[in-house]
Amino acid sequence: MDLDLVIRNARIVSPLGVNTGEIGVKDGKITALDGPGSALAASSIVDAGGKYVIPGIVDPHVHLGLRNPFGTDVRTETRAAAAGGVTSIGIHLNVKGQTLKEGFEREAFGTFKSNFEENAIVDGFFHVPILDEVTFEEMPVYPKIGITSYKLTWGEVGAAGDVGLYRVMERLSSLGDRVRGIIHAENREIAAFLADRLANEGRKDFPAWNDSRPWFCEAEFMEKSILFAEVTKAPIYFEHVTIGRAMEILTRAKMRGVNVKAETCPQYLTLTSAEKGVLPSFPPYGHVNPPLRDKQSNEMLWDGIAKGIIDCIGSDHAPYTTQQKGDDLWAAPPGIGNIMEMTLPLLLSEGVNKGRISIEKLVEICCYAPAKIFGVYPQKGGIVVGADADLVIVDENEKRKVSAKKLHSLCDWTVFEGWELTGWPVATFLRGQLTAKDGEIVSQPGAGKWLAR
Ligand SMILES: [Zn+2]
User: Fold this and answer.
1) What CATH class has 3-52+388-441?
2) What is the distance in A from the centroid of ligand 1 to the CA of 429?
């Protein structure tokens, strides 16, 4: 049988090791793995030149359709994904501005799905927010239509508070072992109180945002959520963990057998509230929740990854232009834009090349673990026979200077402007098709598929 594609001379990375060999692809799937000099034949041969070949990144934490129409964001931001070696994205659906009924009826869901498939050049799956009684009642419906993860917004903000959080967890634990509840851990009441106080003092500098949401807001919400998860047996997932203290909190929870997974983001591994450059020059860029912390937290998060306390990486990509960010620190929409395309270069440059993590660990936290946690493994997240041929050739020695102009997001800024990073993706394949090469996009909208789970 002739294959469609063979990648030769590859250093193939799995969470367990690196093997030199060849990858055979037929009909979009990995159908053969063999050693060097194999007899695998194909209509298309790619020589990886001895570079690493890793599974496509699975970024489980992406916001689209916040300020722009959903389909518009899908079109631009999946280009950013492909260029950055990201081949599957977990999208938080934004239903604000619609009535809940509209937002959650199957027609509306179908619109999200068809909008995605018409515009995407990478694959994606959806997370739904649980906002109120209506969406709470609908929770059992979602696994039947291929959505198995929920953002527990109801318990994080608004009147429901602790009761909302507890009730959602109770219901989650009754929905079987495929579901997971995603939690943004921050005590919003204290954060809002401190923001008011600092704004009244006239503060509008970049560190003022960080000062308004101190570490204990995050620690308090994590401890409470873990306790609720322990008594309800709900499977939970902390998105964007930022604080060093979380390592102790998560270790205790995991030792007690609580079903908890944790994510951090590249920005919390590399940036602090004492940052120079782009962030203090335009404080609204730094309006992100949770806020950036300090060097000690950065290092404790790296250490938590190495020790398996932090399970995976998400980007929390939220694309806003500078104009959409506005010039008011306090009123700016939250999020570090333009991060998805930077995830792999940042983890290669600041992680692997600085000896903080191995390349195997990078594949574990960026590919295998998010795929496993969100129910798309083994279709995604590993170079194994039968998996989708989502593959990224990585040059760990390539040096590039970061510039928003060269990135593909609609976001016209990056907080990493001018950073010199070593280690970049040089080719991205989605289901065996070349999608991006040396930062250039070569596939067309509509190449991406929505993943039912
Ligand atoms: Zn987020």
Assistant:
1) mainly beta
2) 26
